[in-house]
């Protein structure tokens, strides 16, 4: 590879991602720019187009490319390459196997699967997304991929799939999907990626955030993550710094995941002084509650500040007492929930 593509694999590996030779070849040979011919939204909100000088540099960065927005809400994208790589390695697809993909996006992920030797049926509920992905796959001369317009909840009747990969955030998995499944499943306001085994149990693969699916797959979570309140400001401290230096990003996500297991109101919000969203226990009014920042400091606001600060302290102490369990240490059992007319299997119990 040359030009902007030259360091692509190194950028994907930068966070510690280990690429198998087959997957490294797929990323090296499938041209990502073919799948974003109409451009994408930059991080600053401006639109990048193919003629722009920085277009290919961004395409071959390890970053998500938002390709469709509804107002200010992203509704379709090409996922972060290192996250795609981790999900594909977890899927462990072999040549000749059939993969059902829920959420087509740009078609790039399906193209990578095809390069790995899979036969792919990709389903998306957005007609324009389906047409663009079909056109991109044709331009890239990718074979063994069929893109269909449908609600992913029903799966693909009659398809004998070996694997399912889901590329949109869901509240649970459809009972119509065969296993194993790799899917981002809602938890505490985020979408950690789960691998659901053939016996129905699941484990966390990685923290992540995804756009939310439409239809029955968005059904209410048994531990509902309340809507984030925007900026969580005017906070009163309820304790001193616990971690110096602060928890790194992965350890903080471990704490966050545990909070979602133990507290129904765990979600995220922007907190002044922190570039990334922080863990919040949000009160019933969605305007108050408590936050735990990466340094372990607890702050709170609202009419129930004392209660939520105490809850936050209990979550933090419990996580520390258990030896700071990683999110991958939890064994998750699924159970039916959501709309009784269109049930989904959602995380129900957790054990270390």
From TrEMBL:
Its main location: cytoplasm. It comes from the Bacteria. One of its GO terms (biological process) is methylation. It holds the Pfam family PCMT. InterPro entries: PCMT, SAM-dependent_MTases_sf. It is found in: Cytoplasm. Its EC number is 2.1.1.77. It is an enzyme of class 2 (transferase). GO terms for molecular function: methyltransferase activity. Keywords: Cytoplasm, Methyltransferase, S-adenosyl-L-methionine, Transferase. CDD domains: AdoMet_MTases. Belongs to the methyltransferase superfamily. L-isoaspartyl/D-aspartyl protein methyltransferase family. This is Protein-L-isoaspartate O-methyltransferase. It comes from Paractinoplanes bogorensis. The lineage of its organism: Bacteria, Bacillati, Actinomycetota, Actinomycetes, Micromonosporales.
